Amino acid sequence: MRGAVAIVGVGQAGCGDASGFTEMEILAQASQKAVADAGLTMQQIDGLATASSSSAMWGLSVVEYLGLRPRFMDSTMIGGSSFVAHILPSMLALASGQCDAVLVCYGSTQRTATINRAAIKKARRQLEPQPYEDPYEPLPPLTSYALAASRHMHQYGTTRTQLAHVAVAARKWAQLNPEAYARGPLSIEDVLNSRMVSDPLTVRDSCLVSDGAAAYVMVRADRARDLPQPPVYVLGSGTAMWNKQISSMPDLTVTAAVDSGQRAYRMAGLGPQQMDVLELYDAFTINTLLFLEDLGFCPKGEAGRYVESGAIAPGGSLPVNTNGGGLSCVHPGMYGAFITVEAVRQLRGACGERQVAGAATALVHGNGGTLSSQSTTILGTADTL
Q1: Is the pTM of the predicted complex or chain greater than 0.90?
Q2: Residues 338, 230: one domain?
Q3: DSSP states of 43-70 as a string?
Q4: Do 260 and 308 fall into the same domain?
Q5: Is residue 227 in some structural domain?
Q6: Could you tell me the residue range of the domain that residue 242 belongs to?
Q7: pLDDT tens sequence across 198-257
Q8: Count of structural domains, the chain
Q9: How far apart are CA 300 and CA 305, in angstroms?
Q10: For residue 124, what pLDDT is reported?
Q11: Helix ranges (DSSP H) in the chain
């Protein structure tokens, strides 16, 4: 399957504040941009992968709204990693001839939608009980990620200052990205002195609450060569889940990214040392540390010191979250589609001031739930085939 499928079109819409639009409307805008970018028409899309936290049968609504009649559908919902996890089944559907062009899309107006979030949380607790946690009335998902951060600090000596370096590096990348929502100055002191939301995580250790939609189009490699954009090939992909509740993790400092990463590396025939760009799901600053370790970019327990050295910021040795990440660019509830779009843009050489020179490989890593589902994809230019 290595290199058998390529991403040939990408699009985003409504990122930051999409006042006046519904989540379906901005999803359609992003989808239209991605399909047009691929040099295709919506009538040529015969595969669809999408998911939403607001609707159990969201895929059917998207089919109806976009006027599609797909031969392949994947509406698997495993949280924010879904739109990275959708890549492997889409590859299989394309390779087997079930369909010829797959649209992966997501949209959310989490920031501006007028809905009763308290009622939704209450209903979700009743429909999806978490018996080991609910009796203690945690603040989801903050409490879960704070537990992981606390454990990492206790076990490895990680400091709040090191966590703050993740947020500041993301902001420096965002300042190079005109599409990023948060581009103002941010210092280590700003992060440390900002409002504590779940100890040890402050509001600046936490992702944005934004609107946004993102989409990308996949076709078989032989077809990709005839389309207008430089193809970005899928070299490897893997997904792994070990738990749902944070309290069911065997080790709060080790995620299923250990498995998903190894599966992606094996398919790609590459390792961490061959990755030019990393796009990691940074819902909270602790995520970036955990994924750097679990995906093999530094030893377990060393990520705090690694980011403190400036390695992941612009000008550092390992470009991470080059769009500004979920911490500073965009985070409308689920983020996996946006990191995929950014990785494709980097490999096309289309990122302007934030472009990583000579980037030929990119690792995209999605996270879902509370460190619950992990999905890793490795992308490459034609030179990597």
Answers
A1: yes
A2: no
A3: GG--EEEE--SS-TTHHHHHHHHHT---
A4: yes
A5: yes
A6: 140-203+237-384
A7: 999 999 999 999 999 999 999 999 999 999 999 999 999 999 999 999 999 999 999 999
A8: 2
A9: 11
A10: 65
A11: 23-37, 58-66, 82-85, 87-95, 117-127, 142-156, 160-174, 188-193, 221-224, 257-268, 285-294, 303-308, 325-328, 336-348
